[in-house]
Amino acid sequence: MQDFQQVINSIHKQLKDEINRGLVANYIPELSHIDVNNFGIHLKLISGENFSVGDSQVPFSIQSISKVLSLSLAFQLQGNALWKRMDVEPSGDPFNQLSLLELENGIPRNPFINSGAIVIADILVSQLKNPKEEFLHFVRDLANDQTITYNPAVAASEKATGYTNYAAAYLLKSYQNLENEVDKVLDFYFYMCSLEMNCEQLTNAFYIFANHGVCQQNKTWLTTSQIKRINAIMLTCGFYDEAGEFAFEVGLPGKSGVGGGIVALLPNNFVISTWSPGLNPRGNSKIGMQALEAFTTKTKLSIF
Ligand SMILES: NC(=O)CC[C@H](N)C(=O)O
C-alpha cells in the first residue's frame, strides 16, 4: 500500500508557505476575518483508515458544500420527482448568476448553483416539520458526529447582505418554482450554508458517496443509483464555472464552498477534504485545488 501519510505530509509542506494563497471571501462579512494561512488535509480510505495533516481539526464554514447534503436529503425524500424542478447540466457560469435562470424560465441548471440549492431548500421546507433541526440531525447522523453545528452569526451575516440570493428566490417565485415564502426558504438556506465542520468530519459525512450510499456504521442512506447521480453532478457541476478545470487537474467528483473547503472522492477508494480559505477568482480554494491535483498525480488515484 502507498504511504498516504507521507504523501499528504509532503503536499502540505510544499504548499503551506506559498505566498499567493488567494483571497478570503469577504462578501459574507463574517467570513472575512478568517486567517488565510489555515491549511488542513484529511484523507479517509474506504477501509476507514484516516490520515491527517495541518489544520484538519479546525471547524470552518462549509458553505456550498452543504448543497450536496441538502440534495441528498431531498433526493431521499422525493426521489426523481425533484428533477421536474431543476436540471442536471453544468452552467458554466458563476454560482450566483441570474441571467440563465431567467432565460430558462425559472428552472435552475443544476442543484449546486445557488438558484438550484434554493429550490432544494424550498423542497425541504415543504417536506420537513422543523427543517433546520432535521437537516442538522441528518448531517450529524451521516457523519456519526453529534457535535456538528450551525454558526448563527455567519447565517445572520449572509442574511443581512445576501441580495443576489433574494433576487434569485424572487425570480424563482415569479416562475412558480418556489412553494414557500422567500424569507422562510432563505432563512433555512443561509443556516444550511453556515454549517461548520472540520476536514475529518467532512470526510465522514461524504463517506457514503464513495461507498454506494452506505455509511461507516453500515446504514444505507441512498441507493447505488442515487449515489451515481449525485457523484455525476459533483463531477460536472461541483466547482461552479471551474468544474471542467477541476476535472482536468484533479479528476475526481467533489464540491467546494466559499469558506475554502473542498471535499472530493474516488468511489470504492477514498474521500479527501482540504481547507485553505484563500479563493481563486472563480471562488474555489486556490491551495486546496493545488493540493488535490498533487494528490491524484502523486498517488495515480483518480477516476481517469
Ligand atoms: N459558493 C458558495 O459557497 C456560496 C454559498 C453562499 N452561502 C452563497 O449563497 O453565496
From TrEMBL:
Family: Belongs to the glutaminase family.
Protein name per the record: Glutaminase
Enzyme Commission number(s) from the entry: 3.5.1.2
PANTHER family: GLUTAMINASE (PTHR12544)
Superkingdom of origin: Bacteria
Catalytic activity: L-glutamine + H2O = L-glutamate + NH4(+)
Keyword match Lyase: no
Residues binding substrate: 64, 114, 158, 165, 189, 240, 258
GO molecular function list: glutaminase activity
Stretch forming the signal peptide: none
Cross-referenced Gene3D superfamilies: DD-peptidase/beta-lactamase superfamily
Broad enzyme group: hydrolase
Keyword terms: Acetylation, Hydrolase
Primary gene name: glsA
Subunit: Homotetramer.
One of the Pfam families matching this protein, by short name: Glutaminase
